[in-house]
Amino acid sequence: MTQPLFEVVDLSKRYGSNLVVDQLSFSIAPGECLGIIGPNGAGKTTTIRMCLGLTSPDAGIISYLGGGPDRAVLNMPQDALAIKERLGIVSQFDSLDPDFSCAENLLVFGRYFGLKDSVINERIPKLLEFAALTHKADAKLGELSGGMKRRLSLARALVNDPQLLLLDEPTTGLDPQARHLMWERLQRLVQQGKSILLTTHFMDEAERLCNRLLVLDHGKKMTEGTPRQLIADNLEPDVVEVYGTGALALVESPQHALIRALAARVEVSGETVFFYTGDAKVLLIALGEFPELRTLHRPANLEDLFLKLTGRQIREAA
Amino acid sequence: MTQSTLSTASTASTERRPQPALMRPPQLSWRWWPVFRRNLLVWRKLAVPSLVGNIAEPLITLVAFGYGLGLLIGQVQLGATTVPYIVFLASGSICMSAMNAASFEALYSAFSRMNVQRTWDGIMNAPVRLDDVVLAEMLWAAFKSLFTSAVILAVMLALGISHSPMLLLALPLLGLVGMVFASIALIFNALAKGYDFFTYYFSLFLTPTMFLSGVFFPREQLPGVMKNISDWLPLTAAVELVRPLFLGQWPADGLGHLAVLVVYGVVGFWVALALTRKRFRS
Question: Is the residue at B133 inside a domain?
Answer without folding.
Answer: yes
